[in-house]
Amino acid sequence: MPKLSVNINKVATIRNARGGNNPDVIKVALDCERFGAQGITVHPRPDERHIRYQDCIDLKPLLTTEFNIEGRPDERFMDLVLTVKPAQVTLVPDAPDAITSNAGWDTIRHRSYLKDIIAEFKANGIRTSIFVDPVIDMLDGAAETGTDRIELYTEAYATGYHQNKEEVIKPYLDAAKLAAELGLGVNAGHDLDLHNLKYLKDNMPELLEVSIGHALICDALYLGLENTIQQYLRQLR
Fold first, then answer.
1. Which of the residues 5, 18, 105, 153 could staple to 39 if both were Cys, CB 3.0 to 4.6 A apart?
2. One of 33, 50, 151, 190 is an active-site residue; which one?
3. Model-wide pTM > 0.70
4. pLDDT in tens, 149-203
5. Active-site residue flag, 43
6. Is 190 one of the annotated active-site residues of the chain?
7. Short-list 40, 48, 128, CA closest to 81
């Protein structure tokens, strides 16, 4: 069964909108674990508009499941990850002003850059994953960086799911199969929800982990957090 890692960025967005500590990001993360989530994901950005760097430091000693920190590996992000030492770091090629992640790495153009960064994280005992589009050349390039895993950027899958799910999933299945052949673990994330998650899971036996935030938190407004996490876990069984 693929693991469910809950991205709590949106919880921090609500907190930051009014200041103070309501909702309490730490408590929500611990509740997600208590309700069955097998991991917690955060994606701190340079302007700290949602998750703050201090949140990452505060979360680490309290979490009992896998902690995944996503982000662009600038100097401040590197220092944070090497200080916190999460179970996994996911490298994302976000521009500093990006609203959300919107593309995978060009692993050929940035191969040397990624290789050096990944080597440093792995030397510190941190599993590495890099965000990639389902493009064969990018998978070949990813393997050459030394990364442990790739995270397939699933926006295109989610966008086309209701029109032609059989067609839109094909490049993802090909990418996952090749990744496994290359010795890479396969994660997936972006715009996955209660409608499209089960189909991806049922057709991608290589899938190890999904990271879901926006849709899950939106569903929790109507269904409650515990019930929502249980429903996502059912999609993954």
1. 5
2. 190
3. yes
4. 999 999 999 999 999 999 999 999 999 999 999 999 999 999 999 999 999 999 9
5. yes
6. yes
7. 128
